Give the backbone structure.
Amino acid sequence: MASEGTGTHKDPVTGEMISKTELKRREKQREKEAKKAEKAAAATPAQDGAANALNEDDLNPNQYFELRSRAILKLKETQDPNPYPHKFYVTKSITDFVREYGEDGLIAPGQKLEGLQVTLAGRIHNIRSSGSKLKFYDLHGEGEHVQILANVRDAADEKAFLATQQIFRRGDIVGVVGTPSRSQKGELSISPSEMVLLAPNLHQLPSGHFGLKDQETRYRKRYLDLILSDDTRRIFITRSKIINYIRRFFDNLGFLEVETPITSMLAGGATAKPFVTHHNDLNLDLYLRVAPELYLKELTVGGLDRVYEIARVFRNESIDLTHNPEFTLCEFYMAYADMYDVMDITESLLEGMVKYLTNGNTVMTYHPEGKGGKELVMDFKTPWKRYDMIETLEEKLDVKFPPSKTLHTAEANKFFIDLCQKHGIDCSEPRTNARLLDKLVGEFIEPLCISPAFIVGHPQVMSPLAKNHRSRPGLCERFETFLCGKEICNAYTELNDPFEQRLRFEEQVRQKEQGDDEAQPVDETFINALEHGLPPTGGWGMGIDRLVMFLTDSPNIKEVLLFPAMKPIETGPGAAP
C-alpha cells in the first residue's frame, strides 16, 4: 500500500507506520471482525476449553487474529499473567527428555517418577480435553515431541492452573514444570505442577493433520513451514550436515578457509551476469560477486597453497527449479595439483559424504517430478564414468567434428549452427561457438549423467580461465561433474600464464561486444598477480544448493533454501492488513 511506507500513525496491532485514513479503516474493520468473533464464540455456551476451541476453529483467520490479539493485549494490561515473560529456566531439552525417560520399562503405564522434577519448553501443536480437569497437549521442540498430561490434581495451585489452561491455544510457546510419566495408554508424558505461557501465537495454526499445503506460503513463511513440517526441518538439518562435512573434509586435507569480498569493481571468475549495487561514500557502482575464484587464486600466488571458501554468490539470471539468483558455492584451489588430482578429490568428497549421510550406503534415489513421480537411482561408488565431450557428441550425432584446434573459428561456428538446426536445438543470440557447444552438450550428454559422472575434453573457447590441454591442441584441462543431468561441479587445471590469460580476457571482451552479457571483463589486478607467478594449480567449484537438492530428494531448489527469492506480493488499497 503506497500510504504505508510514509505513514505517521502506528498500528497498535501490527506495529506498522500507516496513514491516519488507513488506521481508521483498519480499526473499523477490526471492530467489525471482533463483534463477529464474539458473537460466534457466544453462539454455543462453552462448557470447557475444548468447546471454546471448537468455536474458535469456526472463525476465519481475521476473526481469530482480532479475538486473540484483544485477549493478549488484555493480559499485557493486567500482567495476570505476563504473556511475554523475560526468562524461563529449562532443565532439559525435549530431545534429552525423550532419550532419558522414553526407555521401555523405565516408567510403567499410568505411573510417574515421583520426586523428580524437570522443566521443559516448546510449542503446543494439539490440545485435547477429557473433562474440565484433564487436558492433553502435544509439546514440540528440536524435531521431537512429548505429551503434556495436565491433570488438575498434580497442580501446585489448582485455581491458577485451571486459569492458565484457559489461555493456551495451538501454536503457543509454553514452559512446563513437572514429573516424567506415562499415560494409561503408555505414551511418554510430563505431568505438570505448573504451566507458563512464554509467547502466544496470535494466528490460527494450520491443522496438524493437513499441514501447510500451499507451496507459496511455505516459501514466504518458512517459520510456519518449520513449525509444521518435520520433512522441512530434516532437509535443513541435512543441509547443515553437508556443509559441515565439506568444511571438515578440506580442513583435514590441510586447506585454509578464507573469506573474500562480496562487492568489487569487476565481476569476474565465472561466466554470469552480475548484480550492480552502489557505494554512497565513494559514489561508485560495484558488482556483487559471481564467484570468489580470482581472489582465491591471488591468495595462492601469495603462498596460501591450499585455500577454500564457502561463499554466497549472486548471479542476475533466471529463477527456475534448479537456479536461484543468490546461492552458496564452495571453491578450493590447490597448488601443485592438476584436474586429475581434483577429480580424485571430488570422488572422495562426495562418496564419503553420501556414506556419512546414509550410514555407509552409496546408493540414493531422486524424484525430479516429486514424490510418486519418476525415480532416478544415483550410485556414488567410485570410480565414476567419464564422458569425453567431442568424442561423445560425435558418437551420439554420427558426425565428425572439425579438428579441436579449429573449434574457435568462424567455420566451426557455421558447423555448430547447422548441427543445432539439424537437431532442432534452439540457441538465442549471440550464437558464439561456446554457447552452441553448450547447447549440444545439454541435449545429448548431460542426460546420460544420472549417477555422478565427469564431462571432460572441453574446447578452449568454452573455458577462459582453464589451462590448455597438455596433449590435445584446442582443448583445455577442465571437467564438469553432473548428477541427475545437472551440473554440480566445475574444475580446471588453472591457467597460470599471464600472457595467455590476457588474450583470453580480450576474447571475452569481444564476446561481450557481440552481446554476451555473461562474458568476463579484463581484470588487470588478477593479471598482475599472475605476473608474480601462480604455481601449477588445480581449482574447483561446487554448487551446494543443487547438491543438497539431490541428497535430500527435493525437486525444487526453493525447498533447500530457507528464504528463496520470491516475487513480491502485490497489495492494493483494498487489501487486508
The first strand starts at residue 9 and ends at 10. DSSP finds 16 helices and 20 strands in the chain.
